[in-house]
Design a protein that fits this description.
Elements lengths: L1 H4 L11 E9 L2 E6 L4 E6 L3 H4 L5 E3 L7 E5 L2 H13 L2 H18 L7 H17 L9 H7 L1 H18 L5 H15 L4 H22 L8 H18 L9 H7 L1 H18 L5 H20 L1
Antiparallel strand pairs: 1-2, 1-4, 2-3, 3-5
Helix pairs in contact: 4-5, 4-7, 5-8, 7-8, 8-9, 10-13, 11-12, 11-13, 12-13
Amino acid sequence: MGNLLLRGGIDVGLTGQLRIDRIVGNNVILTMEPNSSREYVLFGKGIGFSCKGRKFIDAEDPRIEKRYRLDDRDKALHYHSLLEELDPEVVQISEQIIDEIRERLGTPVDPKVYFALPSHIQFVVYRLRNGMEIVNPFLYETKMCYPQEFKIAAKAAKMISEKFDVIIPEDEIGFLTYHVYSAAGSVTAGQMVQLTELMNEIVERIEGWREAPLSKKSSDYARLIMHLRYMMERILQNKESENPFSAEIKHKIPAEHQKAELIAQMIGERLNVKVSSDEIGYLAMHLYRLFRSENAE
């Protein structure tokens, strides 16, 4: 939701008074610049609460942590319609959860979570109230890769359960984990789902090579999953990981290196990225360790 609707960032040159059109929540307000009629979403802790009863806010108010300009008129209209659909109680519980995320992780949150999370929660509550099953095929990997975020998501699930009188299954806690992680990171919840799905497919490919399932309780399996997670996040963020032994790895373990190349091709095609030879070398080492430990068992 947030990725689709919010564009731009802080307008350095924006000055003067902004008209307050709507208080979305305690930390979010929708405003308009009177002269240009451009709409801005303002974020800041407690900014919505402090603006109740007011008609204007200064564009340079120090309480404003971030502001986004709604450039596209059609998307702005769509944004307004989505705001109308959000239950105020959902917005309220979402802000409490976001405050918990900020406090527990000790980092600023991405403003987009103020829209992505309530939209997700509202849909989840709807599904549970209507007896719709929630299945998360990546729950095990999610708990393994994001243990701290999973604990926060579990507390969030309890808050949602008490607020709306619904039972939140563990599978849904896994999905909430993606929103917790993306709130403080540069990878969106949607990207996290995509990455976890891709990791699952890679594991299936490896099991196909071995003609046997992998032991998910093994330490080498855990190391492989964690490596895949960080590797794909690095690639998405265009971060380099140097491997001074990549040529030697290719020479000494050619079979595993060839399989690592095939996995790199999968990742490249799915994420529309290029996986470096350095990353392929690291992946080959993890495959070598995994195959050796699994064969020993």
